[in-house]
User: Which sequence fits this backbone?
């Protein structure tokens, strides 16, 4: 009888202990975001702007076109904020690797650098200040071409953008997203400076109404997981989603609802196919690829992510976490809020191949009030909405 009572008490106590531990982890995760928010504001104080979504210059590509192959040497806002997070020495490793003659930044693939070199150490050393303790996979560095890259659980907001996100397949055009906190151009296109930095003045919706960072679960060995994986080739085949006009009309949809349908009917934590990308989310804190360091405010937290290509390009990049029911998010005013996975997301049938009437758009993406409800309104910096969480 005594043993039975003890067993019952243990059974009652264990869930309470687990809940208390997760509450502590969630609080630590929130504190990490607050430190990122403080670094973001200090960066603004020093530069009168927030960091660009992608920074860096590679050596020229095809001399006849004047195109710079910038997508392999574009570093993320997290990398630029390191000096404001007591990581000056790590930032100096990157800066010391910039070519003094050409100005080219080091190639972002660690396999292109010798082990022990400055760029290799910068890319491969663990970055625990970007880890949420609720995600044990974040501590296991991502294996990529026989090198380990430091992961991140904190990602940048590109707002309620779908189409204007990242590089086109010809590498000659990069995103011109003006909707998100980290929207704007990237690097140099045909020799033309194309970087755009936002400031507090850019946030016409207000800093307390604009989201800057949120969470993601970092890629694990099982990329079929909804929270850390990406549904690759959304829109039939590679790059169809890039240009809806050339896609296989009628065979696959482009709406947020079509992406939600990629969830398995038998296990809601997994995608319904094994053909998801071997690249997943949060695989590196310093790459400016959306898969690594970005999210969009279209689908709610913990939803599937559906993209044109395996690590970049147009699509839906969903925030995610292991916290019950949603994820932490950092607003531009420095406050951290918990966003429920049931947050209002408005029109899940918005199709970039033919945007619905009544929504201001540039032919594909929204330009006025967000069609994606409260979540979309939090993502847009200038949609003209005022939302309250």
Assistant:
């Amino acid at each position: 009888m005594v043993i039975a009572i003890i067993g019952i008490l243990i059974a009652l106590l264990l869930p309470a202990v687990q809940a208390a531990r997760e509450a502590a982890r969630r609080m630590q995760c929130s504190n990490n975001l607050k430190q990122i928010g403080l670094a973001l504001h200090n960066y603004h104080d020093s530069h009168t702007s927030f960091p660009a979504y992608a920074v860096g210059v590679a050596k020229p590509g095809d001399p006849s076109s004047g195109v710079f192959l910038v997508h392999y040497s574009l570093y993320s806002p997290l990398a630029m904020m390191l000096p404001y997070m007591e990581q000056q020495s790590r930032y100096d490793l990157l800066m010391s690797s910039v070519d003094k003659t050409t100005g080219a930044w080091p190639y972002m693939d660690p396999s292109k650098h010798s082990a022990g070199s400055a760029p290799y150490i910068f890319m491969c050393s663990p970055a625990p200040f970007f880890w949420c303790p609720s995600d044990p996979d974040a501590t296991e560095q991502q294996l990529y071409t026989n090198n380990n890259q430091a992961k991140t659980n904190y990602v940048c907001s590109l707002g309620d953008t779908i189409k204007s996100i990242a590089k086109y397949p010809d590498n000659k055009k990069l995103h011109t997203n003006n909707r998100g906190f980290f929207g704007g151009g990237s690097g140099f296109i045909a020799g033309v400076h194309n970087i755009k930095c936002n400031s507090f003045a850019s946030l016409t919706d207000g800093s307390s109404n604009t989201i800057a960072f949120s969470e993601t679960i970092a890629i694990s060995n099982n990329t079929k997981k909804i929270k850390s994986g990406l549904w690759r080739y959304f829109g039939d085949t590679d790059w169809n989603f890039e240009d809806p006009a050339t896609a296989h009309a009628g065979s696959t949809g482009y709406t947020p609802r079509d992406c939600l349908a990629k969830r398995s009917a038998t296990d809601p934590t997994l995608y319904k196919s094994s053909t998801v990308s071997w690249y997943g989310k949060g695989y590196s804190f310093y790459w400016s690829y959306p898969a690594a360091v970005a999210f969009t405010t279209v689908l709610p937290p913990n939803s599937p992510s559906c993209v044109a290509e395996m690590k970049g390009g147009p699509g839906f990049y969903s925030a995610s976490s292991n916290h019950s029911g949603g994820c932490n998010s950092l607003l531009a005013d420095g406050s951290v809020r918990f966003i429920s996975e049931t947050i209002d997301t408005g029109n899940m049938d918005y199709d970039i191949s033919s945007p619905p009437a009544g929504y201001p758009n540039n032919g594909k993406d929204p330009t006025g009030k967000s069609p994606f409800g409260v979540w979309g309104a939090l993502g847009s910096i200038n949609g003209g909405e005022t939302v309250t969480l």
Summary: The first helix runs from residue 2 to 47. Helices lie at 2-47, 77-80, 88-95, 118-124, 256-260, 290-293, 373-379. The longest strand covers residues 326-331.
